[in-house]
C-alpha cells in the first residue's frame, strides 16, 4: 500500500508541477495560489492559515507569498478586524492565469480520480485529512530522532 501511495504522490507532483509551469510559477507557489483562491474569498486568508493548510513553516510561506506579491499575483493587506494579521487575496492577473488553465486542470483532475465514486471520493477526503495529521506527528517525531542521532554522532 505504501508504494501505491508513493506512486500516486509522484503522479500528483507531476500534475501539480505541470499546472504550475502553465501559470509561470513554482509548484509551491501554485499550491499557495490554489489555497488563496479556494479559501481567500471575502477578506482573504492569512499567511498562518496557508501555512497550516500546506503543512509548511510560516517563514517559508511568507517568503513565497512575498514573491507572488512581487509577481503581481497576490495582494497583502491588514485584517480590518485584527491588525496583527496579514491577509492574502488573488489579483486579477492571478485569476486570469488560473482561468486560462482551468479547463485543463478540470480534465486532469477528472482523470486522476476517475476510479472513484462520489462516495469513494468523500471517504478518501476524510481519510486524507486524518493521515495529514498523523503525518505531521510522524514528521515531528522523526525530526526529533534525527536531531538525537546527529547529537550522538557529534
From TrEMBL:
SMART domains: HTH_MARR
Organism domain of life: Bacteria
InterPro entries noted in UniProt: HTH_MarR-typ (IPR000835), MarR/SlyA-like (IPR039422), WH-like_DNA-bd_sf (IPR036388), WH_DNA-bd_sf (IPR036390)
Domain HTH marR-type: 1-133
One Pfam family per UniProt: HTH_27
Name of the molecule in the record: HTH marR-type domain-containing protein
Species for this entry: Pigmentiphaga soli
Amino acid at each position: 500500500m505504501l508504494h501505491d501511495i508513493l506512486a500516486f504522490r509522484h503522479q500528483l507532483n507531476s500534475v501539480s508541477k505541470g499546472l504550475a509551469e502553465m501559470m509561470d510559477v513554482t509548484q509551491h507557489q501554485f499550491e499557495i495560489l490554489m489555497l488563496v483562491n479556494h479559501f481567500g474569498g471575502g477578506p482573504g486568508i492569512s499567511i498562518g492559515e496557508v501555512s497550516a493548510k500546506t503543512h509548511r513553516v510560516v517563514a517559508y510561506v511568507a517568503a513565497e507569498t512575498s514573491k507572488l506579491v512581487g509577481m503581481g499575483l497576490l495582494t497583502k493587506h491588514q485584517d480590518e478586524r485584527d491588525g496583527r494579521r496579514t491577509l492574502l487575496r488573488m489579483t486579477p492577473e492571478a485569476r486570469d492565469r488560473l482561468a486560462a488553465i482551468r479547463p485543463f486542470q478540470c480534465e486532469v483532475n477528472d482523470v486522476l480520480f476517475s476510479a472513484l465514486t462520489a462516495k469513494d471520493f468523500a471517504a478518501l477526503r476524510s481519510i486524507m485529512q486524518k493521515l495529514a495529521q498523523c503525518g505531521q506527528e510522524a514528521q515531528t517525531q522523526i525530526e526529533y530522532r534525527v536531531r538525537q542521532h546527529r547529537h550522538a554522532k557529534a
